[in-house]
Structure formats: C-alpha cells, structure tokens
What we know:
The protein is mostly helical. The chain has one domain: NCX, central ion-binding region (A middle domain of Talin 1), CATH 1.20.1420.30. Helices cover 83% and strands 1% of the residues. The protein has a two-stranded antiparallel sheet.
Amino acid sequence: MARRVLWGSLSLAPITILLHYVADLGDTADFVLAAAALIPLAWLIGEATEHAAHHTGPGIGGFLNATFGNAPELIIALLAINQAKFEVVRGSLTGSVVGNLLLVLGFSLLFGGRGPVDRESSFMSLGLVALAVVLFLVPAIPSWSGDPERELIVALSVPVSIALLVVYVCVTWYSLRRHRAMHATTETADDVEAWSLALSLGVLGLATVVTALIAEILIGSIETFAHNAHLSEFFVAAVIVAIVGNAAEHGGAVVVAARGNIKLAAEIALASSAQVAVFLIPAVTLLGLLIDSLALAFRPVEIGAVAASVVFTALLLRDGMSSKAKGVYLIVGYGVVALAFLVAGDR
C-alpha cells in the first residue's frame, strides 16, 4: 500500500514544476508543494540505488548508496550555497544529523519495541558523529565573534572537511559488510524483482535531475514561506527541510522496525546520522568551493544540539537493548531540540 502511494505521489513533481512556471501560485504554495514532491523523489532515488546495487556488487553499491542516498540533501545544500543561504545549508545539515539520531531512531524503537541492537556498530556511528562535533569546533568557535563567513573560517573548514572524508573512507572500508546490510531493505531483497542496471541508472539520473528542479523551487521560496509562517529560515531548514530531505529513508527505517528487525532499523538511523556528519557535510563544504565558499560556522545551539543528541542516545543504548520507552524518550528529546532551534531563530 505504501509503495502504491509513493508511486502515485511522484506525480507531484511535474505538477509542482508546471504550477511554479505557469500558475504563479506564490512562494508559500511553492514551498509546500516542493516539500511534498521531494518525499517520493527521495524514495525513488533510494529505490533505484538499491536495484543498481544488485548488479554492481558491494563496493560500487556502497558508493552508490553513499552518494545518491544523500542526493536530495546534497542538491538542496548546493543550491542554497548558490543563493548564498549559508544558514539554511548549515541548519539543514545539522538538523539532519539530529533528526536521524533522535527522531528516526526514536520512532524505530517505538515501533520495534524491545529487542537487541548492534552495540558495536551503534557506538561506532555515535563515535563518528562525536568526532565530527569535535572537529567542527575548530572553525565554529572563531565564528562566534565577527563575520562567520570570513576567509579565516572558510580556510579552517577545508582541512576539517578533508580529515572527515578520510575518516569516512577508512571506516566505510572497514565496515563494508555492515554498510551493505544496513541499506538492504527486505522489500527489495525478498518481494521485488531487481530492475536491470540500465533501468536503475536511468531512473536514478532522471530522479536526480527532477530533484534538482524541485529543490531549486524549495530554496527559492523558503524565505517567503518562513516569513509568512512567522518562523526563522534557520528553523525551517533545520526542522522542516531536514525532515523532508530524509523522509523516505526515515519511513524505511520505521517500516523495518515495525516488521521486527529493530537491529537493522537502528543501524539505518545511526549510520545515516554518521554519514551526514562525516561524509555529506564535508562533501558539501568542498564542492561548495566551486560555487561560493561555505564556512563550517555552526552556532553554539547547533553544536550543542548534536553533542547532546550523541550523549543522550549513547546513554539510552549503552545496554544494547531497545524498548518503546526509549523510543518515546528520543522523540521527546527531538522535540526539545526543535524548540531550541525555534527559540534560537536566525543568527
């Protein structure tokens, strides 16, 4: 049923593009439609990536998952950099890390109930996010006074990004089997016949192009939407855009948990958070140099939210067991972080 809804909702993308260029509905309607259209597109990219991985083997399959699994967030970030919306970029990325750690994992534990989680893998992911937080402090602390976009902060951001990417490559190499397992959904493996490689890559390319068009509409309308909704651009990016960009993967983790595979669901949530922290954020920073320099000038509220999320999640998972109560605690924790983002407002 869920798959049918997702297939049907793919029609939102051409409708959104058509209405944007023909009907001129206004930025608020554009933002809502674009956000809704991104959800099935993110799912389609993930679906095509999984099918392609059946033909490419674990090495290239893992690379495809890492690259295209984050394609919606990457495209949103690069388009925002192109429009000099640096706070939107940073907010959506930190919001994605926190959302995976607290919201996705929380709902996974809530629907999965009691059961074991892979403690070693969980703490490896949490350790990667903690390492990223420590390294982010290098450019972040100087940015708390003066212009956060000045050349010094950008210069400090580059070696930090390179170091994180090196760590990501090393850890991915070490945990390749785990990496493949956490992306293998039961639907694709058991219930759905794999697409041909040509079809998979074709769908992947088309979905990525359409995602870019929709993301451009989303970023172009975020300022007006935030103003009309009486919300800061930072809050919209850190909460709404971050959730939308990850919606398909979020839903997949919860479905897996509800089917009883809480161990896999927890790995999806935690590994996705680590992937954003040590792969997507540095990748956006380095690719952004080709467009307009992005400084990793995270504010104290962002650094604090990610650090607190890591500690809170680690405390709940220290015994290697999940439970519905822990899921509720994580969801409430996300609510507290979202409230902090709301109160913080724009820089």
